[in-house]
Amino acid sequence: MTTRPLALLLLLSSPVAAQEAAKEAAECPVDAKPVVTLGFGSRYTDDSENRSDFDEEADKAVTAALKPIDDFITDLAKQTNILNDPDTKPEDAQAAADCVMQSILSWAKADALSELETQGANLSAPSRVGGIAFAYAAALKVVPQPQGKDQIEAWLMDRARQTMAYFDTEAPPRASQNNLRAWAGLAVTRVGLVLDDAALIDWGADTASLVSCTADADGSLPNEMWRGKLALHYQIHAVAPLVTTAALLQDERPELFTGCDRAIPRIVKFTLAGLEDPAIVEKITGKKQSVGGTKKARDFELAWIPAYLTLDPDPRIAELGAAVKELGNSKLGGDQRLLWPGSPKADPADG
Predict the structure, then answer these.
(1) Could you give the CA distance from residue 305 to residue 226 in angstroms, rounded to a whole number?
(2) How confident is the model at residue 96 (pLDDT cuts 50, 70, 90)?
(3) What is the mean pLDDT of residues 214-227?
């Protein structure tokens, strides 16, 4: 039997020590090379009509193309967690805010993500911009007038307008109303709120309404159900931006959560029921699902739960959230328990 060092045992048993270690491990991505041009093909085989059959090599190529951006927003989210933690020391918050501002400024100066050369790039970039906007919003609370503020905000505005133009005029019919549109709406909403821009906020709200109102009576999303064996996977993927957008706009647009006969709660209820027993999805699709039942959703796929509980404190969903160790997603601004205070903490016994 391997004996763990005493220091490690103390670290694992001490939340404070673990928190401090996490802060020390958060690397500042200020030197991350900005990705200006982005272009890649589909992850799926050419003959996959419902885009449910992965091409192994193409899938790897897409992941590789997005990796520098995903690494960047993951590192930003670590800094965001420091900023959102109420126990963070002032000097640590200042360092994290400075890191975020300098890192984003370097991407703004390079006009990062301005050259999106393919359909896949245009569909994938917005959710990453949203992650950057979440980090910027958190850092502004500590550094309200950072160096390069105008340049950063002009760049965020350009990325938001680029997103709106693509989804309004060029996106494929299904993508213009599915989870990808929902992620675009969240990104534009987060940018709109931080810039106090009514046009962006309206577009984000309209997007959440557009996507959620496509739900069938049972809460299933037709534009995700057509994905065959990946239907529930993509239904889950749509929930996060819909719920988070509604939570961000609950003061300005309270009707988002209740609109279309409480579409968002119905979508959430169907999704969670499917995760418990995917038979309800398999009945619609005729395909065995890639997730659900014994194939549990990954923690980050449930990161929207704290935001949802600010809209509907459902005890069953709260219990589900409390059982998840880490409710974090870099596209949603990091640790969601920190971003949406008052949400349930993970039970140490479950860890």
Answers:
(1) 25
(2) very high
(3) 97
Question: How many CB atoms are closer than 10 A to CB 214?
Answer: 19
205 or 348, which is more confident: 205
Please state the φ and ψ torsions of residue 335, each to the nearest 5 degrees: -70, 115
Name the nearest CA neighbour of 136 among 154, 124, 123, 121: 154
Tokens read off for 173: 């019919």
Tell me if 36 is assigned to some domain.
yes
Does residue 238 form part of some domain? no
Domain count, the chain: 1
Q: CA–CA separation, 119 vs 100, rounded Å?
A: 29
Given this model, what pLDDT does residue 59 score?
76
Q: Is residue 150 part of a domain?
A: yes
HEC readout, 52-108: CCECHHHHHHHHHHHHHHHHHHHHHHHHHHHHHCCCCCHHHHHHHHHHHHHHHHHHH
Which CATH number do you get for residue 131? Answer: 1.50.10.100
What range does the domain containing 39 cover?
30-171
Tokens standing for 166?
């693509």
**Per-residue model confidence (pLDDT) at position 21:** 43
- Please report whether residue 196 resides in a domain: no
Residue 310 has pLDDT above 50, yes or no: yes
Q: What's the rounded Cα separation, in Å, for the pair 336 and 350? A: 18
Question: How do strand 328-329 and strand 37-38 relate by DSSP bridges?
Answer: unpaired
| Proportion of the chain in helix, strand, coil states, percent, rounded to 5 | 65, 5, 30
Least confident segment among 57-66, 159-168, 275-284: 57-66
For residues 186 and 17, the model is more confident at 186
Cα separation, 131 vs 52, in Å, equals 26
Flag whether pLDDT at 283 surpasses 50: yes
Report residue 177 CA to chain centroid gap: 17
- Closest C-alpha among 32, 264, 272, 224 to residue 128: 32
Which pair of tokens denotes residue 126?
A: 């917005």
